[in-house]
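Task: sequence design from structure.
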């Protein structure tokens, strides 16, 4: 069960109790109180003990529907980091096997896609939505969380960003194709093929960002309460 760390700290502060005093009142160890206030994760017994001394119901201590409560642990962070590195490694291996790495490097395409992504995010969700999407990237590195409406909102932002990425890539692909076909008389066969390959890079960037970051985040946030 996840408790609201903010509520717990507020209730303790209102009584003027230190963590040591709360530990004595609940017959829990100081380390247990510190851990619960740090990550919000508490057993049913600990929740009942804390609720009893504050004279509130156990439900009142739980994270509200507007909060995202996360249990951060080093093991969980490392596990998710390794998974992200494995995805990056798999993509990198295919890049090396496929062609020269330089063929996949295009700063202009990457910059265009990022600008398009966050401009579309601001138009749809406002500046606050953009900043929340940036700060929410940290949820890639955890699994145990509850979030209610805040998590659902952020999940919807990331779901929309997947569409923005592919939409931006499609626009870039169309513009690039028009530019290539419009100047086809000036190209020899090699230059034409090279230009066509570079034109696909923006779609490659969109797919990597969407399927490696934004779609997993969207699904994780939308289902975090279901897994509880």
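Answer:
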């Amino acid at each position: 069960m996840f408790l609201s760390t903010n509520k717990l700290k507020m209730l303790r502060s209102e009584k003027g109790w230190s963590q040591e005093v709360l530990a004595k009142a609940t017959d829990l160890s100081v380390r247990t109180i510190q851990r619960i206030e740090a990550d919000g994760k508490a057993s049913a017994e600990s929740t009942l003990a804390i609720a009893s001394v504050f004279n509130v119901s156990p439900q009142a201590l739980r994270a509200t529907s507007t909060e995202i409560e996360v249990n951060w642990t080093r093991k969980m962070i490392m596990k998710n980091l390794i998974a992200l590195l494995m995805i990056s490694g798999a993509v990198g291996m295919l890049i090396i096997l496929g062609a020269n790495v330089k063929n996949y490097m295009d700063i202009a395409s990457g910059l265009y896609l990022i600008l398009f992504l966050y401009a579309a995010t601001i138009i749809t969700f406002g500046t606050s939505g953009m900043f929340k999407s940036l700060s929410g990237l940290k949820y890639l590195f955890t699994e145990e969380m509850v979030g209610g409406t805040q998590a659902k909102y952020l999940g919807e932002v990331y779901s929309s960003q997947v569409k923005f990425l592919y939409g931006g890539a499609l626009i870039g692909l169309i513009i690039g194709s028009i530019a290539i076909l419009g100047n086809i008389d000036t190209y020899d066969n090699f230059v034409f093929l090279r230009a066509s390959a570079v034109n696909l890079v923006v779609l490659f960037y969109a797919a990597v960002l969407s399927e490696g970051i934004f779609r997993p985040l969207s699904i994780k946030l939308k289902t975090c309460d279901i897994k509880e």
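Strands lie at 69-70, 145-146.
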